[in-house]
Amino acid sequence: xxxxxxxxxxxxxxxxxxxxxxxxxxxxxxxxxxxxxxxxxxxxxxxxxxxxxxxxxxxxxxxxxxxxxxxxxxxxxxxxxxxxxxxxxxxxxxxxxxxxxxxxxxxxxxxxxxxxxxxxxxxxxxxxxxxxxxxxxxxxxxxxxxxxxxxxxxxxxxxxxxxxxxxxxxxxxxxxxxxxxxxxxxxxxxxxxxxxxxxxxxxxxxxxxxxxxxxxxxxxxxxxxxxxxxxxxxxxxxxxxxxxxxxxxxxxxxxxxxxxxxxxxxxxxxxxxxxxxxxxxxxxxxxxxxxxxxxxxxxxxxxxxxxxxxxxxxxxxxxxxxxxxxxxxxxxxxxxxxxxxxxxxxxxxxxxxxxxxxxxxxxxxxxxxxxxxxxxxxxxxxxxxxxxxxxxxxxxxxxxxxxxxxxxxxxxxxxxxxxxxxxxxxxxxxxxxxxxxxxxxxxxxxxxxxxxxxxxxxxxxxxxxxxxxxxxxxxxxxxxxxxxxxxxxxxxxxxxxxxxxxxxxxxxxxxxxxxxxxxxxxxxxxxxxxxxxxxxxxxxxxxxxxxxxxxxxxxxxxxxxxxxxxxxxxxxxxxxxxxxxxxxxxxxxxxxxxxxxxxxxxxxxxxxxxxxxxxxxxxxxxxxxxxxxxxxxxxxxxxxxxxxxxxxxxxxxxxxxxxxxxxxxxxxxxxxx
Length: 673
What we know:
Layout: H1 2-15, H2 20-42, E1 44-47, E2 58-63, E3 69-73, E4 76-80, E5 85-88, E6 93-99, E7 102-107, E8 110-115, E9 118-123, E10 127-133, E11 136-141, E12 144-148, E13 153-155, H3 160-163, E14 167-173, E15 176-181, E16 184-188, E17 197-201, E18 205-211, E19 214-219, E20 224-228, E21 231-236, E22 242-248, E23 251-256, E24 261-265, E25 271-275, E26 286-291, E27 297-301, E28 306-309, E29 321-327, E30 330-331, E31 339-342, E32 349-354, E33 364-370, E34 382-385, E35 391-401, E36 404-405, E37 409-415, H4 423-476, H5 479-495, H6 498-519, E38 524-525, H7 526-543, E39 548-555, E40 565-566, H8 572-581, E41 590-599, E42 602-609, H9 614-624, H10 629-641, E43 648-654, E44 657-668
Parallel strand pairs: 31-37, 39-41
Antiparallel strand pairs: 1-28, 2-3, 3-4, 4-5, 6-7, 7-8, 8-9, 10-11, 11-12, 12-13, 14-15, 15-16, 16-17, 18-19, 19-20, 20-21, 22-23, 23-24, 24-25, 26-27, 27-28, 29-30, 29-32, 32-34, 33-35, 35-36, 35-37, 38-40, 41-42, 42-44, 43-44
């Protein structure tokens, strides 16, 4: 501006004699020349919807620790890396506050908190400003001051006028809380139940700033107020409709909703320059100003988007950050880990890293290594490692911008050895295998022994059955019976009754032949057994001194008796026992009944007599010292034929009078078809 006035002074003598119309034209051309020169010196760059912004209304600008710019707009919030805008649709976003790895976004309908790719929303009144006071997140809303609790937003009861006012800003300065509201500026000693409260300014106060150990309060119309120790020390006249005030190096930048920007000296508060639509290609409706880590100035307007003002040409080495680490495609919660321990199956690792250079965003390149040499430089800022083997790893990454290199950043992690590859597991498996092998051998030996024992038991049973069969054969024909038959044959011969003699000899020979033939067979037909029994009973009728009758009945369910197979020599001992012991010598009308029945896949045998009864016959045997060996042998044979045997001997009674004996048993039905 000094140059501008010097040029005007030097031209004053020259233009005194010129006509007025030429003089006006000269001044107009000179103003345009100066305006273009001044605009070029500003080095302004504009970003709008065509560049990716969600809206041309920028309410607030902040920068996170990685370097991303976060923009609050009337159509949500946006993240900018110098090239691309990543937009997130929300209710009108008014302000942004960033504290370490947490990002707080004040919305028209509440508060959004972002951390580690997760978000939490808290409903509240419209939020205009977010500050950290006493390690607590304090919110300036359109209806008082609130505090963010763990799971809710709680209004603070300070003072009636404050609690129901629009709060533009809040700040802590020298242990005093200052609250800028539409109804003025208040100072209180504490947020919770304040004891001391003063109202310092009556006018609408829009923004607060601490600079040079003083508090600067911006009013909507009456300019800036310099405050210290509860007192307004100085009034600074400046542009009206102030939206915000920010300190940029040694300057105070005053943003106006209608008059662009006015820049003051930060120490003396003397006017330095203006930036508006009259001297630069910039909007006059400015909401906020922000200086990034590379000293570039970002200006947010309410109608023409975002402006970047490169006020310096300083260069510095780029800074590199690891943005995200994903294990098996799932992000881990924290990157502040000295060494990440992973399970054997967690062997797919992804790294995202980023260097933000808002001046030269397209010149960033990266290289990395995983225990080996570095890869070539590349613009790729993400890498995936799949199916890594167990062991210790160190991932190292570095970025560069031109010839400037960032510091190397490393991250260590360890993938545990699968359990099946660990020494103790191999030893344990070997021991278990040996134990199982020994157990298998032991079980096999036991099985063989059991099998051999079963064979031995089977052989014993078979041998016992053979013994029983031999005994049964030996006892099949009672010697006394044979002696009687032979004596009878002799008597018939002596009497000269040749016809009866021949018949008896024939019957006896058939009986002996059937007995001898059946003794060599394991099974005979039921019909053969019946024929043998008939032969035996006929001979007994002839030779026995006692007269008796017998009947043989069958009920075989239409099965031919020739087709039913039974072990030989089963019934003869019972019949013989019946003849010898069931009847008294003087018994008349003695009867023996044999019944063969097929029921439920079993062949049932029944022998009935009308003798003295089972118990009485046992007493008679005791008196005569007779032991029915054949009967006991046959009973044991029947018990070995089937586990379903049901051998029974019972007396037949009628009104408590013994009418005889009934012997019954069953064997499984077996046929030859």
